[in-house]
Input
Amino acid sequence: MADAPLKDPAASVSVRGLPDRGRVLCHGFIESVTYAPASQVAHFVAIVVDHDAPPARNRATASQAGSGATPAGVPDGRVQSGVQRQRATGPKDRLRVVWLGRRRIPGIDAGTELRLQGMVTIRDGLPTMFNPRYEILSRQEEQ
Output
């Protein structure tokens, strides 16, 4: 299997421009982080978005406008099994980054800008990168 072609090795792609599979260099901002409880295997998860992506609340509202469906996509509000495992068909606007064996990574918080390098794959409908190389480009100042 061939890696995703890169035009310039030093150029990074946005989260929206990620291929389904392959080695990539991308950049974005951390939208949220998830800490694993002590009773689970150690892992740390961050959701990365493009800097120009609209807030999550606006994206959800825009996708539901004009449809009678609930957020789960089921007209009567029931959640069907397997819905979350469907492969995304539209443009990808989020990247799940998972660091296995770590409970926390200093400097990785919501609002931090990152450059990531690693293998991307689709897991549970989201592009996912496991244990990538990362560079912290900027941090959001506390107000």
About this structure: The longest strand covers residues 22-35. Helices lie at 56-64. The chain is about 5% helix and 35% strand.
